[in-house]
Amino acid sequence: MPLTNKPRLLTLALCGIYLVVLYWTIVLKFNLSAYHAGVERSMNWIPFPGLFGLPGQGDLNESLLNIFIFIPFGLYAEILIPEWPLQKKTLLFFLSSFFFEISQYLFKYGAFDSTDLINNTLGGILGIGLFSGFEKVLKSRIKAQTLVNLLCLIGTVLILSILLFLKLNHLWIFRMQLLER
After folding, report:
1. Beta-bridge partner residues of 131
2. Who is most buried in 32, 45, 74, 118, counting CB within 10 A?
3. Cα 167–Cα 169–Cα 174 angle in degrees, nearest 5
4. DSSP state, 43?
């Protein structure tokens, strides 16, 4: 069933905002210097090193966060490109995550981590499943899209508010440090 223009435009706008915020969060670390301090430029090609008794960065909370932040990507993908098969969408999530990870490494904002690639991709797949669940419960693709748009609109406003607060707080702290000198 084709989507009407207004909900589709809202979904596209929310997806665009989400991708910008995702890049700003993952790659630029909110563009706050405190997040860049002590970050080592490295590549971890062994996923989940703790499972193998190897030293490595990351923990369960970080893994869950990486899964969680990619769930909206799966929701948007299922709404905007429903004709793509799961394999193609999975490749989209993987390649997007790869782009973010390699950008962190190249711009010296963080480490390339194969665990993040897996978790981010899994989050996108979970988003697809979540949308399918909404669609089955509501018995309508349009109703499922409306619900996702509403939830994502609320989430986007909350996330942008939190990020703005963090940025303003960082600027205030920076200003206070300058005044102390």
Report:
1. none
2. 74
3. 95
4. E
163 in Cβ contact with 28 (< 8 Å): no
pTM of the model: 0.81
Query: In the structure encoding, which two tokens stand for residue 165, read together?
Result: 């607060």
Phi-psi region of 30 (alpha: psi -120 to 50; beta: other; left: phi over 0): left
53 phi-psi bin (left φ>0, alpha ψ -120 to 50, beta other): left
Q: Which residue has the tokens 């706008």?
A: 13
Q: How far is residue 167's CA from residue 78's CA, in Å, rounded to a whole number?
A: 32
Segment (H or E) for 145: helix 141-180
Domain boundaries, the chain: 5-180
pLDDT for res 1:
45
CB 26 within 8 A of CB 104: yes
State mean pLDDT over 111-117.
89
